[in-house]
Design a protein that fits this description.
11 strands, globular, signal, DUF4468 domain-containing protein
Length: 199
C-alpha cells in the first residue's frame, strides 16, 4: 500500500496537470481513507452548472486513469482546493415536534459535511440541492468535541436559532448573553468565541 501511495504522489507532482488530467471540473485535492492513508489526486463532488447537483460521493482521478468513487463509509475525509469535508454519522430524531440531530456511530447514515471550524466546537455545513429551485443550500451545525449532539445554528433568513443555541451553550452564559445582544454576525464568530472564552 505504501508503494502505491508513493507512486501516486510522485506522478501527481511530476506530470503537468493540464496533460495528465484533461477532464473538466476536477480540482486538486486528497482523500483520507479509513486506514488513515492520504491519497492525492484530482477530485470533484458536484456538477459545475448554475443549478448545481451535489454528489453523495466524491469522484477521484489519479495516475490510474480510471475514476474512483468514495462514499462516506469509504473514507474519513476529503479536501478539494480549500474546502474540507468529513464523513460523519447523522441522525435526525423527531419527538413531540422537536427535532434533535445526533452524530453517533451506527445511528442514521454516514454523510459528508463541510468543516469550516475545528476546536472544542466544530462547525459543519450540510450542503444539498434545493429540489424546487435547483440552487445550493448550506445549513450550519455545531457539534462539541465531547458530545454526540449536533445543533442547527440558523433558521434560514431568520438568523440564529437563539433559544436552541442557548440550551446548547448552557455551559457558557457569557456567550448566550452576547448571542441575545446580537454580538455575533455569523456561525464562525460564535465558534471562535466559544473556543477562546468558554470552558
Amino acid at each position: 500500500m505504501r508503494y502505491y501511495l508513493i507512486l501516486s504522489v510522485i506522478f501527481y507532482l511530476l506530470v503537468p496537470k493540464n496533460q495528465a488530467f484533461a477532464q473538466r471540473n476536477y480540482q486538486d485535492g486528497y482523500v483520507v481513507t479509513n486506514r488513515n492513508d492520504t491519497i492525492y489526486g484530482r477530485l470533484r463532488d458536484r456538477t459545475p452548472e448554475t443549478s448545481v447537483q451535489i454528489f453523495k460521493m466524491v469522484k477521484m482521478k489519479g495516475f490510474w486513469f480510471f475514476e474512483k468513487k468514495y462514499r462516506p463509509n469509504d473514507i474519513i475525509s476529503y479536501r478539494i482546493q480549500d474546502r474540507t469535508y468529513e464523513s460523519l454519522w447523522f441522525y435526525n430524531r423527531i419527538r413531540w415536534f422537536t427535532s434533535t440531530h445526533i452524530s453517533a456511530p451506527g445511528q442514521g447514515e454516514k454523510v459528508f459535511m463541510r468543516l469550516t471550524y475545528k476546536g472544542k466546537l466544530k462547525l459543519y455545513w450540510d450542503e444539498f440541492r434545493d429540489l424546487d429551485g435547483g440552487y445550493e443550500v448550506q445549513v450550519p451545525y455545531f457539534k462539541k468535541v465531547d458530545s454526540e449532539e449536533m445543533v442547527r445554528v440558523t433558521q434560514g433568513i431568520f438568523g440564529f436559532k437563539k433559544k436552541r443555541l442557548a440550551e446548547f451553550f448552557v455551559d457558557c452564559p457569557d456567550l448566550v448573553e452576547r448571542l441575545y445582544d446580537g454580538f455575533f454576525d455569523g456561525p464562525d464568530e460564535l465558534a471562535e468565541f466559544y473556543d477562546s472564552h468558554c470552558y
